[in-house]
C-alpha cells in the first residue's frame, strides 16, 4: 500500500515544480499557473492511441501507447529533468489523475525523486478554480472604476497597482480592451477556462480587509464571459468615475488605438458591424476615414455618435451606486495625469 496521501489543489504550493503531463493542446487550453508541459503523449500520438482503442481495443492501444509514453519519458529525463537535484519534489498531473501522470510519477520515483500525483488531475483543479471564485467574490471589498470610452481606465488601474493598491485587471486576463475595437493586434484571447484560472489566481492573493479595484466591465470582454457572480457584485459596489474631457479622451484613444490604422481591412470589417445601429451612410463615412487612416475624425464621431449617447444611462441602469459615485475629473490623460488620478482615487479611502 502506498504511503502517499492524496494531493489536493490546495497543496500545490508544497511542491518544487508542477508538471503537466497532458498534450500541448490541452495545456494551451488551460493549465495550473506555473506548470511546465512535459507530455507523455503529444497531440498526434494521443489521436493515434484513441483511434486504436476504438478500432482494435484497449490492449493494442496500451501496447502502442506504452511505447510512445516510454520514449517521451526517456526524452524528458534526458532534457527537462536532467539537472534536477536528488531532493527535487515535483507534482504531476494529467486530465483525471490517471495513467498519463501515473506513469510519469512511477518513473520519477524510480529515479529517486519524491514525485506525487495530483488527485483527480486537471479536473480537480478546475473544480477548485470555480469553488475559489464562488467563495471569494462575495467577500470582496470592490471599488469599481468607471468612465466613458477613452478615459484610460486600464491605465488608471495599472497606476493604482503601482501605488500599492490591490487590482483585478479583467481586460489583461481576457487579452482584450473590452470595446468593439478591443482586439489586441496579434494576440489571441485565452480560453474561458484559462481566463477563470487567471481570475481565481489573483483572487487567492487578495487581502479581503482591503479594497480591490476593478474596471466596471460588461458581462463579456470580447468572446470571454465574466463570471456572473463577479458581474453582479461589481454592479452593486462603490463606483468611482474617471470624468475626462472629450478632448482628453480623444487624444488618449489616438495614442492607445494607433495600431488600428495598420490593419485597415480589419478595422473596416469591425465598423461594418455597426451598420444596423448607425445606418449605411454613417458607417460608410467611418469606413472611408478608416481607408484614409483618418483616425481623429473616425474616433471623434465614434465617441459622439456611438459610445457616449448611451453611456450615462447604461451606467445608471447597471451600477446601483452610480448616483452616489465619486468623480475624479481629468482635463488630460498623459502618464502624469493618470498617476494623479490614481492618487486621488486612493485618497478617497482616507477621506471616507
Short description, anyone?
This protein is of the alpha/beta class. It has 16 helices and 11 strands. β8 (220-221) and β9 form a beta hairpin.
Task: Kindly describe this structure.
With 352 residues, this protein is of the alpha/beta class. The chain is globular. The model has no long low-confidence stretch (mean pLDDT 95). It is built from 16 helices and eleven strands. Strand 3, helix 4 and strand 4 form a beta-alpha-beta unit. It starts with 16 loop residues before the first strand and ends with a helix. The chain has a five-stranded parallel β-sheet with strand order 6-7-5-10-11, sandwiched between helices. Strands 2-1-3-4 form a four-stranded parallel β-sheet, covered by helices on one side.
Total of helices: 16
**Number of DSSP E strands:** 11
Please compute the radius of gyration using only Cα atoms.
25 Å
Structure classification: alpha/beta
Low-confidence stretches: none
SSE string:
EHEHHEHEHEHEHHEEEHEHHHHHHEH
Beta-strand residue percentage: 5-15%
Mean pLDDT: 95
Q: Could you tell me how far the N terminus lies from the C terminus, measured between alpha carbons in angstroms?
A: 60 Å
The best one-word shape is: globular
Largest sheet: 5 strands, parallel
Write out the strand line-up for the largest beta sheet, numbering strands in chain order.
6-7-5-10-11
Oligomer: single chain
Helical amount: 40-55%
